[in-house]
Input
Amino acid sequence: MSDGPDRPAGQSRRGAAADRLRAFVSVSDARLLLVFAVALYGLFTLVSVVLGYNFNGIVDTLRRITFLSAIYAVLVLALNVQWGYAGLFNIGVAGFMAIGVYTMGMLSSPTTNTFPGLGLPLPIGILGGVLAATVLGLLAALPALRLRGDYLAIVTLAMAEIVRRTYRSPVFQEFSLGSVQLGTGGSRGMNLPENPIRTLFYQNPTEVGSPPNALGNVLFDTAAAIGIQPSVVEGWVYALGLVIVVGGVYWLLQRVGHSPFGRVLKAIREDEVVARALGKDTRAFKIKAFALGCALMGLAGILWRLSGGYVSTTMFQPIYTFYVFVALIIGGAGSTTGSVIGGAVFASLLFEGPNFVRRIVTGYVDVGAAPNTLFDAVAALGSLDVTPLVAYSLSDVNVSALRLVLLGVVLIYLIQNRPEGLLGHRKEVASPIDLTDRDAREGDS
Amino acid sequence: MATDADAVGSEHEPEPGTDPLLSVRGLRKQFGGIVAVDGATFDVEAGSLTGLIGPNGAGKSTTFDLITGVQRPDAGSVVFDGADVTTYRADRLAREGLVRTFQIARELSEMTVLENVMLAPRDQLGESLWRSVTPGARADVIDQETALREEAWETLEFLELEHLATEYAGNLSGGQRKLLELARVLMTDPTMVLLDEPLAGVNPTLETKLLERIHALRDRGLTFLLVEHDMDVIMNHCDPVIVLHQGTVLTQGSPSEVREDERVLEAYLGGEVDG
Output
C-alpha cells in the first residue's frame, strides 16, 4: 500500500512489474486486448491442468472459451452501439438473435429436413437472417423512437417475446407457402444447415461418417500427431473464424464511434434536445444506430447456432438479453474495446466459470451427495454444517443458479465501486482525427 | 455603453418596404387553463439585436419554444426568411438557419469542448453512416473534419475559450458554458440566433465580453433575438425592445420609448393593464 522505504523488496518488484505491464498496455488497445487474451488463456490452461485434462482437453477448453467470448463480444459490441453510444434501451436482444437464426435456417436448411428450409446457399441465408433482424429492428424502432426511452424498452421486450413465441407456435411447426414446405419445428426446434467448417474439411459434409478431403486430411493428421482430435480442430477453426468476425465488427464500430456520426449519437445520449436544436435529425440517427445494432445481433445469433446445427426457442429466453447487458456493464458502456473485454470476461469467467469451479471442487473435495431440496441444504446450516449447501449449490442442476448468484454479486459490486465498468471511464473522443493537436494532418485513414 | 448601443441602433434602422427576417403572428399556446401565449405578434428585422422583455410569466420562454419548434402553437404562425415555418421541428429550423440557446446552459458534459463545438456544423459528410466506415469515402470525411477542427479552434479563439478546447464541457464554469453554447450556435452558421437569457449566472467581466461578441457578430450581419431579465442589459444593448405581458405584446419600440411607456412600468409592478 505505502511507497515507504520499509516496503519489502518482493512487493516493490511486484509493483514495478505491474507498472511496466500498465505502461505496456496503455500504449494501444491492441496491446491491452493481447495481454487480456494471454491472461485469460493462461488462467483456463491452469484450470484445465488442475482438473487433470489431457492436452486435447486443454485445447478444447480454450476453444470453448474462445467461441463463447467471441459470440458475446459481437453481441456486446452490437448493444454498445445502441445503448453505449446512443442511449437506446433495447431489452429484446434475444429476439433479434432469434429472428436472425430462424430466418437463416428457413432460407438455407436442406429441403429434406424434417422441418424443411428452402435449401438456398448458406451466404444467402446468413444475409437474409441479418436483413430480417435489421427490418425487425426498424419495425420496433420506428414507432417507439418517437416516444420516451422507456417505451422503446417495453416495445423491444414485447417484440422479442412475440418472435420467440411465434417460432414456438405449433402453427408454424410445419406449414406450406403455396407449394413450398417450411417449418420452424415449433417447440421441437429445427435443424440448421451444416456447419460450414465441415464443408471445408469433409468430402461429404452432410454425412456423419464422411472421410475428410485433402485439406482435412493434412490438418487432422497434423493435429493427431500432437494428440488433438478432429472435432477439436473443427471447433478451433470455427472459433478462429469468429475471432476474425469480432475483429471486423470491432473495426467497423471503431470507425462509427470515431466519426461525426458517432459524435451525434453521443450527443443524443447526453442531451437529445441539444442535438435537435443544433439541426440534427435525431430520429434518423437513432433509427440507423438501432438498425445497425439489430443487424449485428442477428449475425451473432446466426454464428452462435450455426456451430451446433440446431436451434430451439428455449435458447432465446429474455435472460440472454440480461446476460448481454451484464457483459456490457462489466466492459463499460460506450467503449468498443471495453465491449470486447466485457463480453469475454462475462462468457469465460461468469458464464463458464461456475462450471469449472464445480468441477474443481467436486474433483478435489468430497462434498457428499447433494440434498434434494434447498430447504434441506439450508436446514443443515442450523447444525453449522455447510457441506450440504455447498453440495447443493454445486450439483449439476443448480450450477446455473450459482451463476445467477455470482452475477448478482458482481453487479452489486460494480455498481457500488465501478459503475462505469472496466473501460467506461475512458471517454473516447468522437472524431476520425486527433482533436487535441490543432495542426496534426491525418488521423487514421 | 448606452451611447454605443444608440449608435448601433441608428445604423440598423429597418428600411421601410423590406420584409422582416422573422415574423410572428397571433401566436397562442394554452396549457390546461392557463394561456401562456395569447396572440403574440411582432417582427424581427434582419441585422437587428432585438430584445424581448417582460415580467415573470409573461410568456417569453414559451414564445421562444413556439418559434423554435420545441412546442407547437395552438394558433398563429411563424414566418422565417419568407417561409412559413410554424410546423417545422427544431432540427429543421436549425438547418434553415434559425438556432437557439437555452436558458440553462445545456453543455454535453461528457464530451470535450471541441467535440461540443464540432458537433454543430451543418451537412457534415461523416454524419452519414456509410461514409464514416467506407475506406475511400472516409478520406473525404477526414479532410472535412480537419477543416472543421480549424474552424472550431477559430470560433473558440473568438470567444476566448481556446485554452479549454480539450477540457470536458462538464468541467466548465457557468459563464464558460454560456460561451460554449454561443460557440456551438455560431458553428451552425446561422442567419438568426435566439438567445434565452444568455447572461444569467454570468459574472460581470464575462458579461461584458459576451455582449461585445454579440455586437461584433451583429455587425457581421447576424440577427439576434434576446430574452433577458436584466433591464439594463436590454435597454443598453437592444434596439428595438419588445415588451411581452400576459402572453401578448404590450408595446415595442426603441429603448427610450419603452422606458417612458407607463404601461411597461405598471406591468413590472404587477398592475393590471387595459389596452
In short: The domain at 28-364+395-443 of chain A is CATH 1.10.3470 (ABC transporter involved in vitamin B12 uptake, BtuC). The CA atoms of residues 48 and 58 of chain A lie 6 Å apart. Confidence is low (pLDDT under 50) at residues 1-5 of chain A. Chain A has one domain: 28-364+395-443.
